[in-house]
């Protein structure tokens, strides 16, 4: 296999895992994922991420506390959440939401069931590990962009080791809580978490795959 084929196969095989087995990932493998992911480019090579990785009891304590917080507190992310999804983006968002609900048996319009599924975000879908991704506040949107590249690198490196991942912005909605919990000052911006571990391949939440738009929907060729 050539390099392109290898990379394409990894990109195609990666998907967001929403049901994990509880068994932990070896520390050496987590270090390999982090070491590979940090090779992504950043503006001025600033490498603006700081990452907290939880394991074992720490993940379970965080899960319980964040679930309680999410049931109680209003959302207050450091990086403002999108204000609208319109047009094709709205369509794609709906489609992937319906795919998930159909997979796990949430009927359209069943708000209680969809809220229960949403709350799974704060239990990290059962993942044994969480990587909290923060950026340097002073770098603004470009720091966040660099960290987005890191998240992609993380998910692909994990995939290459057979480790499942999901990037989640939902926990970042409770940024004040996460600042307190992890003792983060205002100079850090909470962006997202990546929950990771070994997939539960038979769980219905892992039974669907999202699609991608054809090139002619989003590429403009000039010259
Ligand atoms: C920055 C970012 C934030 C995301 N936040 C969430 C989230 O809070 N909850 C969730 O279930 N999925 C979340 N996702 C996963 C997306 O829904 C998923 O990547 C998208 O639907 C494409 O599906 P795929 O990852 O399986 O290819 C997020 C993905 C990214 C990149």
Automatic annotation (TrEMBL):
Q: Which InterPro entries match?
A: Nitroreductase (IPR029479), Nitroreductase-like (IPR000415), Nitroreductase/BluB (IPR050627)
Out of the domains of life, which is the source?
Bacteria
Q: Which Pfam families match?
A: Nitroreductase
Q: Which residues form the Nitroreductase domain?
A: 12-198
What GO terms are given for molecular function?
A: oxidoreductase activity
- Quote the SUPFAM superfamilies the UniProt record gives: FMN-dependent nitroreductase-like
Question: Which terms are listed as keywords in the entry?
Answer: Flavoprotein, FMN, Oxidoreductase
> What CDD domains has UniProt attached to this entry?
PnbA_NfnB-like
Name used for this protein in its record: Nitroreductase
Organism for this UniProt entry: Maritimibacter fusiformis
């Amino acid at each position: 296999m050539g390099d392109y084929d290898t990379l394409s196969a990894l990109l195609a095989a990666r998907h967001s895992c929403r049901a994990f087995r509880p068994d932990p990932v070896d520390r050496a493998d987590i270090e390999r994922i982090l070491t590979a992911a940090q090779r992504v480019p950043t503006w001025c090579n600033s490498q603006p991420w700081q990452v907290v990785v939880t394991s074992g009891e720490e993940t379970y304590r965080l899960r319980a506390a964040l679930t309680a917080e999410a049931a109680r507190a209003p959302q207050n992310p450091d990086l403002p959440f999108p204000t609208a999804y319109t047009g094709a983006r709205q369509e794609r968002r709906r489609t992937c939401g319906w795919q998930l609900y159909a997979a796990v048996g949430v009927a359209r319009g069943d708000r209680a069931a969809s809220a229960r599924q949403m709350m799974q975000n704060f239990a990290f879908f059962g993942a044994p590990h969480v990587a909290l991704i923060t950026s340097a506040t002073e770098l603004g949107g470009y720091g966040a962009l660099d960290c987005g590249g890191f998240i992609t690198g993380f998910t692909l490196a994990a995939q290459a080791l057979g480790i499942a991942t999901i990037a989640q912005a939902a926990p970042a909605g409770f940024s004040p809580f996460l600042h307190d919990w992890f003792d983060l000052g205002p100079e850090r911006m909470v962006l997202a978490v990546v929950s990771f571990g070994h997939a539960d391949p038979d769980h219905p939440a892992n039974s669907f795959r999202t699609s991608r738009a054809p090139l002619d929907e989003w590429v403009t060729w000039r010259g």
